[in-house]
Design a protein that fits this description.
single chain, mainly beta, two-stranded antiparallel ribbon, 36% strand
């Protein structure tokens, strides 16, 4: 993925964002893990999809770093409690 936006409302696979160099992926459901080639960037209170706002907390990861990517991977916080340890890196 080089540009654009993908929104996944259900469960996502464990390689979401692989080879991503730009754009935004919003994962609203459960994701087993985040690839180690993504770095935690921030915690946001919402994500914007065109003119609609998804008002729930999201972890934001930047990557894919092996591709020198600057894409954003938004992962719903409440649906992914197992990723809470990333908060210590913010």
């Amino acid at each position: 993925m080089r540009d654009g936006m993908i929104v996944v409302h259900g469960k996502a696979g464990d390689r979401a964002g692989a080879f991503m160099t730009g754009g935004k992926i919003i994962l609203c459901g459960y994701v087993p893990s985040v690839l180690p080639t993504f770095a935690i960037d921030s915690l946001k209170s919402k994500a914007k999809v065109e003119e609609e706002e998804m008002k729930k907390p999201f972890y934001v990861f930047a990557g894919d770093l092996t591709e020198r990517g600057n894409g954003k991977l938004y992962v719903a916080k409440d649906e992914n409690e197992h990723l809470k340890s990333y908060e210590t890196l913010l």
